[in-house]
Write a structure and sequence with these properties.
The protein is mainly α and 261 residues long. The protein is built from 6 helices and 2 strands, in the order ββαααααα. It has a domain of 168 residues: dinb family like domain (Four Helix Bundle (Hemerythrin (Met), subunit A)). It is 41% helix and 2% strand. It holds the Pfam family Pentapeptide.
Length: 261
């Protein structure tokens, strides 16, 4: 085990670093930023957790002896009544959930169109721009619906945008710097959302309970079988979470003086 004792590592960047089992004692992490990290099984004792912002999947998080994850889930459902519909259990529920996704995203796009188009390529606090968010959702649909469920080994469009931490994969586009017009990306989105609509409209109890067939060839997800229900829940989660991120960033963009075209 490497040891760093009494070292000044301020502003050090760690990327794709394996820190499993690391021990951090009497150390100052003030202002540290964690993105795309796994903290499963992490234990924190004697910490000062003040003015901390956590966004991500939270389960079995115990703070001062209290499992706060159910409290967080209940509060999120209270704030967003449609959120509970993102956990459907039958084909009709998945169709209803996709109705909600279409309705909410339609309103978000209308809101985005009111801004100066240049702002839709701007990052807020290092997050994806609005257009990049849409491109990522195209990728998510291509990966989980067109590849995993429908069996297309290479469903990608050149504008697909994987998540930042994904290792480069042969055949999968990854042009983070592209700045296509909003209408170009929306046309892709409409095509992919229509594909999801077709899938959920065709769901039966049997097909929902089935597993996907492994898809060979490079890409994402890997060539293994997945429960169809889990795949569609993953798609719903992607759509729900990224719309919330987009709405959050639109708040910030609208506050900028040059927001209106």
């Amino acid at each position: 085990m490497a040891e760093y004792v009494d070292k000044d590592l301020r502003d050090t960047r760690f990327e794709r670093v394996d820190l499993r089992g690391a021990q951090i004692r009497n150390s100052d992490l003030t202002g540290a930023t964690f993105r795309g990290v796994w903290l499963s099984g992490a234990v924190m004792r004697g910490v000062e957790l003040v003015d901390v912002d956590i966004t991500g999947e939270v389960r079995n998080l115990t703070i001062n002896g209290v499992d706060v994850a159910p409290l967080v889930e209940a509060e999120l459902d209270r704030r967003h009544p449609d959120r509970a519909r993102m956990r459907p259990i039958d084909p009709a529920g998945f169709r209803e959930a996709w109705d909600v996704v279409e309705r909410l995203w339609e309103a978000t796009v209308v809101r985005a169109r009111r801004l100066d188009p240049a702002l839709l390529h701007k990052s807020v606090d290092g997050e994806w721009s609005f257009v990049q968010t849409l491109r990522h959702l195209v990728f998510a649909t291509d990966a989980w619906v067109r590849r995993a469920i429908l069996g297309d080994p290479s469903p990608w469009d050149p504008l697909d945008l994987p998540w930042d931490e994904m290792p480069e994969t042969p055949g999968v586009p990854w042009d983070r710097e592209a700045q296509p017009p909003l209408d170009t990306v929306l046309a892709l989105r409409q095509d992919r959302m229509a594909t999801v609509r077709e899938v959920v409209e065709g769901l039966t109890d049997e097909s929902l309970a089935a597993n996907t067939e492994p898809v060979e060839g490079p890409g994402w997800p890997p060539p293994i079988s997945f429960p169809v229900r889990d795949v569609l829940l993953c798609v719903l989660n992607e759509e729900w979470q990224h719309r919330l991120y987009a709405e959050r960033d639109l708040d910030a963009l609208e506050a900028r003086p040059q927001a209106r075209p």
